[in-house]
Automatic annotation (TrEMBL), chain B:
Name of a matching Pfam family: Cytochrome_CBB3
Naturally occurring in which organism (per UniProt): Corallococcus exercitus
An example Gene Ontology molecular-function term: iron ion binding
Keyword Transport: yes
Stretch forming the signal peptide: none
Name by which UniProt lists this protein: C-type cytochrome
Amino acid sequence: MRRLLPLLLACTGCGGLRMLDARGPHVARLRSLWDLLFLISAVVLAGVVLMMLGALLRRRGGSRAQVPEVEAHSVPPGGEGARPVDPARERRMGSAVGTAAVLTVVLLFVITVANASTGAALARLRSPDALEIQVVGHQWWWEFRVQDADPSRNLVTANELHVPVGRPVVLKLNSRDVIHSFWVPELTNKRDLIPGQQNTLELQADRPGVFKGQCYEFCGLQHAKMGFVIVAEAPEQFEAWRNQQLQPAPQPTDPVAQRGQQVFLQGPCALCHAISGTDAAASTGPNLTHVASRSTLAAGTLPFDRGHLAGWILNSQSLKPGNNMPALTLPPDDLQALLVYLESLK
Amino acid sequence: MKPRILLGTLVLLTACEREQRRFQELPAAARPAARDVQVSELQPGPVAAPPSEPAPATRAASEDNAYDVSEGKRLYVWFNCAGCHAAGGGGGMGPPLLDAKWRYGSEPENIYATIVEGRPNGMPSFRGKIPDTQVWQLVAYVRSMSGLLKKDVAPGRSDTLNTRPSESSKARETPRPEEVEQPR
């Protein structure tokens, strides 16, 4: 049991989307706003519940002795059914309602001010040396374009994004088909990706780590399987990753991988996917230039390994029904060669 | 009496498969003749080796399925058919697809052969590039452009700006053959 407990504790953190773990300055501001709202809501809820319990448990008739008896058949002065007015009671009720109304207005005002000041604080975090990354939502995967002042250093990748620790990142969000929503709970709030409109979202990671993200706007059949990964790492490591991703895919030297490349280029793969350094330059599917450097397959659906890759190529529809990758029929030798080639695309 | 007719129609509609999305099912084969023939020397990408054994052709029941036709409409843009035949099929570098004239036949098998084998004067051969199921989806969409499909199956609207009435409101053209221009 003692051994199990740390394991269980560790597992509560693994895999999921951790909404309350702020790992960056932006989301830390949101976290303090969240704390304030939680506190206010908890106090209001507790107050309301206490009042209700008091009303339920209070003995009736405590003040009845002072109220003059009303004759059964006479009509009281206030009209049919009206109770006689007790001025002290009226005052008490009036002051209670007045206090509650004032308290409500004050609390709402506090929330409004806190909300606006959080927004202003987030706006102050904007920085001119932020790294610009274009995010394009597709059914059902993410395209990331890391921008640079030098256009030849613009980088295209999919479903896995590396960011430097300690440097603000500006995400320019857009969509190719329907409305998606970008959310990495540990690093940012949510923001929609709307076709034909550019939305902006900032994030910054304060420490290295791997953060899961997820589409948060229902976008079709495989909305749930539209995840991505953000890897925050030290600036040197990020530059190394960027330079490595900017390289064209290496020409295969192994004959099996060479055949795999031919299968890729002559077969249907090249009609949708791009591998830089080859003739394949289509952009309707994820860019596969460094596909083997990613940890997941099919937008966070599967781990990247040969078995899952083979299953995905042969019958992706059984793994993620409705996605735009058609089932392919390949002879076993061609498939093996293709797998070897794709795995060589580090 | 009327509610009964309505109810009957509704029951009939539940039986029709126009909305069914067959992601995995490969429909029964109807192998068109001369599948391995390549008429055009043009093709996307490097020259494909001739297939060692012909893959089983799958004739999707696309013609009656609204999902398949809309998939065909998406692929028509994705595979750049629109690059020559124009986004609505009005024609440009390639011949228009929404009129009554057909150089190589209007039957699904003819259009399949045109896509897979290519045609002289510019139509590339997409053999081995497009999976069979998707070729049949394209065939269904191409036929919908000249109103040859049922109106409840043809796409009713576009995802992009409409430049012409939708395929479902296209009047049915009567296909007639057109003389093929000879290369000079």
